[in-house]
Amino acid sequence: MCGIVAYVGPKDAAPILLEGLQRLEYRGYDSAGVVVSNKGLKVRKVKGRVADLAKVVPARFKGGLGIGHTRWATHGVPSDVNAHPHLSADERIAVVHNGIIENAAELRAKLEADGVVFASETDTEVLAHLIAHAADENETLEEAVRKTLKSVVGTYGIAVIDAERPGEVVVARNGSPIVLGIGEKEMFAASDVAALVRYTRQVVHLEDGELAVLKADGFHTFASDARETAKEPLTVDWDAGHYDTGGYEHYLLKEISEQPETVTRTMSGRLDERFHVAHLGGLNMDARETRSFRRVKIIGCGSAYYSGQIGAQLIEELARIPSDAEPASEFRYRNPVVDPDTLYVAISQSGETYDTLAAVQELKRKGGRVIGIVNAVGSAIAREVDGGIYLHAGPEVSVASTKAFTSTAVAFALLALHLGRVRDLSPADGRRIVEGLRRLPGQIGEILAQSDKIAELAKKYAGHAGMMFVGRVRGYPVAREGAQKLKEISYVHAEAYPASELKHGPLALIGPDMPTVAIVPDDELLDKNLTTLGEIRARGGQVLMVGHREPSAKLADDAIVIPKNEIELDPILLTIPLQLFAYYAAVALGRDVDKPRNLAKSVTVE
Ligand code: AGP
């Protein structure tokens, strides 16, 4: 997705903007640009990488005010011309924009009728022309921006500079994140804290509808009706080191390898060995309220949704509350019935996924009680919910989610324990789960130690055009996540099915060219799963089994054997070998592992 960086202060803006844009590269983009103000606006923009942009920004690009952008094309092909910043016809105003202006065609037609000639095909360029017109009629840039945005329908995070006001940047947010960074006599803004942490850890998140004016000596924020708003700066506990590969070849491998520590952080200070409960103060709920829910509904997108399926299973098993998960992107559009006795749980690593945020807002509007399971502290979803559980997994840079997935599953185990122990979950079962959770980091380490073997298996299977992933009940969301990881980073077609459903259709696909990854934990469904393996093998299908015991050669060609935990927690450990399998398959196929084609880290558009 697109990225924004802005700077105003005593230093030269260009190197700071380029460094910030590099930090945002992980989000996915196709072109990049910067503009600095120094006796007029100086612009460079290119189709390609930030490194290509750096090559065309000359040393004489001086000036302490500037904005920069990485673009992920929506309106118009990736090209130098369509790259941001966009300038008004008189080259007075420059704008960078994330999001989509829905009435851009209509606004463009009006401007063209007034004689404005457009340089690009983008929706953003209308903003530059409209703000330039408003700047002629208003005393301040902030007023010009505020009034312009009244005529705009759609989502935006924007940064705007005016050649005639060389000491300020105006930023605004509606559905696309903007965070301010407070420095020593300098101010920053960006669409993601990743771009800021090298310079400051004091940040302020804008709310939808808010605008801010940044000057070297400070900032002020205001609402769309011009009323000033009060903001408390937050200190982010992520620093620049969190955004390095730390000696690993890819962020993805680093993040997979960090999981013993990240799941430990998710549990840290939350497990109680005396009463065998989980302390989740962030839920803002007393015991009576915790007991009152009769259903749990979980929403999230992509891998977050699959981790929600694991969560629903955990809550049903441990707390015996009917629970289910649904893609937030579907939920928000189907006019859901919102029930006062249901606890709604929204999951998001980034906390900025537009579909999940919109679903939360719809729930809140209808009076639903919504908690969040979120990684990014202070993000839009974290601010919108009534309470929640932070993952504390640290920034996840690679587009494919790994450590946030396992930390979310652990957070659900904590939530299930919490909900269960105020109901019928016995102290003995509570202790079993607490002890099982404590064993997870060491067991993840044992799985990671099998990386070489998993890399060999990945090489063996990566050449196939497609793979089937199957699992039953607890194993099914694991199969879905395994297939998701493989397809998104290796581009190998992967289909996930409940093992029980194979014979109702997809078995027709099974044969020597379609290997199956079978999730076969040692649980009450083991025999059923082994029967499925027999059915696959009888049709000439190759099987890679992931489970707790070495299968007979009759049932599987290969196996990854992992340590056993409590059956309810099995999905967490079963996921790890599939992450490694996808990673090594992608490496074997020479893919861009951390930035897979067509995808973005956080999907802040509809
Ligand atoms: C995961 O590998 C994907 N890149 C994607 O499905 C992701 O989980 C989804 O877009 C939700 O993101 P979020 O957790 O930041 O809301």
TrEMBL record:
Its main location: cytoplasm. It is an enzyme of class 2 (transferase). Its EC number is 2.6.1.16. Transmembrane segments: none annotated. It catalyses: D-fructose 6-phosphate + L-glutamine = D-glucosamine 6-phosphate + L-glutamate. PROSITE patterns: GATASE_TYPE_2, SIS. Catalyzes the first step in hexosamine metabolism, converting fructose-6P into glucosamine-6P using glutamine as a nitrogen source. Homodimer. This is Glutamine--fructose-6-phosphate aminotransferase [isomerizing]. It comes from Nonomuraea aridisoli. The lineage of its organism: Bacteria, Bacillati, Actinomycetota, Actinomycetes, Streptosporangiales.
